[in-house]
Design the sequence.
């Protein structure tokens, strides 16, 4: 496993590239479609991450080995699910597929909890393989969050860290 540190502006181009890669690996299970490409390529840009890093409520930690980005976690310290008792939001936990299963996701979440508090929430698509990871590391399923993407209803599972239980 690599070194975990706070993201800098120099990381933003790699954060964008890794986000596109992980997003397509996760959601484009049947192949690439125009609406997927438009969303991913217009959202996950260097400018997007530069903007987030400039906001005081956002924090991003990266895991890198040498000069290679293996994964990252992005938190929004002001986002709450239903109440402040559920903590802040882990908006993204993206690990390159070649580095999944090596403890990077857990290490990033542990580092986030150490820096910003033990209680946090996150949501993930109900069909995402990450659901078993979140249960395995002890997060609790507390609800569902739904939205529409490309005329399809997307159902997400909402998890909270067990420190809140």
Sequence:
């Amino acid at each position: 496993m690599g070194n975990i540190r706070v993201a800098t502006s120099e990381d933003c181009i790699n954060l964008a590239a890794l986000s596109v890669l992980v997003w397509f690996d996760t959601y484009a299970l049947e192949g690439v479609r125009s609406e997927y490409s438009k969303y991913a390529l217009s959202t996950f840009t260097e400018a997007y991450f530069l903007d987030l890093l400039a906001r005081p409520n956002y924090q991003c930690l990266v895991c890198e080995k040498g000069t290679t980005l293996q994964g990252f976690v992005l938190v929004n310290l002001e986002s709450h699910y239903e109440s402040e008792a559920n903590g802040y939001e882990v908006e993204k936990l993206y690990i390159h597929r070649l580095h999944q299963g090596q403890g990077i996701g857990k290490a990033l979440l542990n580092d986030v909890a150490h820096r910003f508090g033990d209680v946090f929430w996150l949501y993930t698509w109900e069909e995402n393989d990450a659901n078993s990871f979140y249960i395995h590391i002890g997060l609790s399923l507390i609800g569902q969050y739904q939205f529409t993407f490309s005329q399809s209803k997307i159902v997400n599972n909402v998890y909270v860290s067990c420190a809140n239980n």
Summary: Strands lie at 3-6, 58-65, 68-76, 88-95, 120-125, 140-149, 152-160. The CA atoms of residues 10 and 50 lie 9 Å apart. The helical segments are 12-27, 34-43, 46-54, 104-116, 130-136.
